[in-house]
Amino acid sequence: MGDELMQDKWHDECGVFGIYHHERAAELSYYALYALQHRGQESAGIATVDGTRMYHHKGMGLVADVFNQSVLAKLAGDCAIGHVRYSTTGAATLVNAQPLTFAFRKGNIALAHNGNLINAHQLHAFLERQGSIFQSTSDTEVLAHLIARSGLPTLEEGVKESISMVKGGYAFVILSDDSMIALRDPHGLRPLVLGQFDGAYVVASETCAFETIGAKFIRDVEPGEMIIFDKQGMRSVHYAGQNKKALCTFEYIYFARPDSDIDGFNVHSIRKQFGKLLAQEHPVDADVVIGVPDSSISAAIGYAEESAIPYEIGLIKNRYIGRTFIQPNQELRERGVKLKLSAVRGVVEGKRVVVIDDSIVRGTTAGPIVSLLREAGAAEVHMRISSPPVKNSCFYGIDTSSAGELIAARKTVPEICAFIEADSLAYLSEDQMLAAFGVEKGQAHSYCNACFTGRYPTEIYEDLTKFSLER
Ligand code: SF4
Fold first, then answer.
1. Pocket lining: 253 vs ligand 1, CB cutoff 6 Å
2. CA–CA dist 104, 108 (Å, integer)
3. How far apart are CA 13 and CA 140, in angstroms?
């Protein structure tokens, strides 16, 4: 909560990793989770299997807090899956930390999930009526129950049958006693990549995990694809037929690490292109371009390059802020921004400053950033946002505010500008955002932009805005 107040951003909720058949499976998972830490900081976990027995360890906090040498040494076996979590559904408690592990009549199973099952509420109620007893409030457990109930002879068939019953945006990695299964939702809303390390197969939410362990990227897992790794090797099944691809554009805008490549595009390069197109669309007569660290730096560099205005480091981020000590009132919120960010007086004093941010969600920190820059002597502060106004909630695994809390759902751009007390404010348009991927105006594309446009790529369930599995 504290971090949200200091940084008015949506949160990606999870990162997943899996490795099949390597003697250092647990240790490599640990390093991979380190690389995926930006996708979730509330809990971390690893499950391993040695052919007969499953081992797991999970805890609240960062990967570095949850694991140490002796814990990793106990995670025996040559197959592992790992998870970092930021809760979207279900409370931030250990019982919801993943991988979730279960023993059922066909053996052991562990699940790691990034995303959100939008019909989990209905399935949960149905399963409870049928006698299922849930041990967590996580939507992930719904899939586990469906798999356990499947009467089909193999895990592969059981997963295929069960996954066809859930809807939403997801990437799953599932570990059993003798196989690992990776799958991506039919629209490819959440990312998942496949690689190889030292003869072993690896899957991860982002390629930065591969870079960290030295794995070779093979390809993105395709939307609606299920990959099975077992003693026979690797095989791919398309379980969902033809669906319109709709990869989350927010992965590029904010969630993913800049060094990751997703579906053929490097995240830093796309952010830089957003900045260039923003400079073309909304130029400013100014002396210096700065970015809100860290996620807006690439776009700020792009804006500066395109506008031929010098790029400078005008805001410094304090990296050592705890997450949970700030309570939600306006005064502490503003102080929170000052604890998190400092303006570099020597860069902004007496200057007309263009400040680039990747998004404004509730609008709670943009104003304090403007005032921070003015207090440091900026003559003018022009805010430029490298994505369109966020007007709609996300139902695909992102921790979003309800639409009513989104400032752009309630106010026009001039009203937001007045609210944050900037000299000017402008956003990248949807057309220009898509142009960064080479999509021409009006052309069909393969991205989800629903939080900007309200055009959701899947059916949306009526009670979704009230959706919660918590009691
Ligand atoms: S609604 Fe927005 S945040 Fe959610 S998946 Fe679509 S683009 Fe991403």
1. no
2. 6
3. 13
Q: Residue 327 belongs to what H/E stretch?
A: none
333 CA → ligand 1 middle, Å: 26
Q: Is there a catalytic annotation at residue 14?
A: yes
The reply to whether the predicted model has a pTM over 0.85 is yes
Q: How many CA atoms lie within 13 A of 321 on its CB side?
A: 23
pLDDT digits (tens, 9 = 90+) for 411-448: 999 999 999 999 999 999 999 999 999 999 999 999 99
Range list of H helices, 172-245: 208-213
The strand pairing partners of 381, in sequence order, are 353
Give all domains of the chain, ordered by start, each with its CATH number: 2-248 (3.60.20.10), 267-466 (3.40.50.2020)
Among the listed residues 294, 252, 248, 245, the one whose alpha carbon sits nearest the alpha carbon of residue 273: 252
d(CA 86, CA 330): 24
Instruction: Characterize the bridge pairing of strands 380-385 and 424-427.
Output: parallel
Mean pLDDT for the stretch of residues 60-77 = 96
Range list of H helices, 150-296: 155-163, 208-213, 250, 267-281
DSSP 256: S
Q: Is the pLDDT of residue 26 over 50?
A: yes
Q: What is the Å distance from ligand 1's center to 358 Cα?
A: 14
CA–CA dist 38, 46 (Å, integer): 17
DSSP state of 85: E
Atom 2 of ligand 1, residue of closest alpha carbon: 451
Q: How many CB atoms lie within 10 A of CB 410?
A: 14
Measured over the CA atoms of residue 414, residue 415, residue 417 and residue 421, the dihedral's sign is positive
